[in-house]
Write a structure and sequence with these properties.
175 residues, two-stranded antiparallel sheet, 3 helices
Length: 175
């Protein structure tokens, strides 16, 4: 089992604990891509099945960026209590989720930057494409989400095909 929720944290097995302590398990540390993929699979599973537990991925100093204001800036949600209220009030429980891409790279002081793209389909609603970025900060025994920004990708209306008139080719070079 690579991932588990424990109290107020998400842990990435024994390798992350050893890495945080400055040791490695068998001389091998998990690659950020492995951490990012395991995190994304577990995060969206919990979001779908138990949104009331998603706040356990965060700490009080975490910042959740959601729904742009009228001026285009994101609303920031902080503290585990407010983050929990946010997730409990969403309608993502039981929706279908599709993760298209998970990209990860090492970051500041052993953290991992994760970028996820995919879609949510809420029952009786249309599919909503999204992109979400996370900064997973190291902590004893694993990682927690320090930063999380979610943006829905607007659906662009389909434009009808444009007919282009093809003119006869004139040979300008041989005149």
């Amino acid at each position: 089992q690579l991932c588990r929720l424990r109290g107020s944290m998400w842990a990435f097995g024994a390798r992350a604990m050893a890495a945080k302590a400055g040791n490695s398990v068998g001389g091998v540390l998990p690659h950020p891509h492995v951490i990012g993929n395991a995190f994304a699979q577990h995060y969206y599973k919990i979001l779908n099945e138990s949104p009331e537990d998603v706040h356990k991925f965060y700490h009080d100093e975490s910042i959740l960026g959601r729904k742009p204001n009228s001026d285009g800036t994101l609303t920031s949600i902080t503290t585990m209590r407010d983050i929990n209220k946010h997730f409990v009030s969403t309608y993502l429980k039981g929706c279908s989720m599709q993760i298209d891409n998970v990209d990860s790279q090492p970051s500041h002081e052993g953290g991992v930057l994760v970028l996820v793209s995919g879609s949510f389909t809420v029952p009786d609603a249309m599919k909503r494409r999204f992109t979400q970025s996370f900064f997973l900060a190291p902590q004893k025994g694993g990682y927690f989400v320090l930063n999380d920004v979610l943006r829905y990708i607007p659906v662009e209306p389909e434009t009808p095909p444009v007919k282009v008139q093809v003119l006869p080719l004139i040979d300008y070079f041989w005149v």
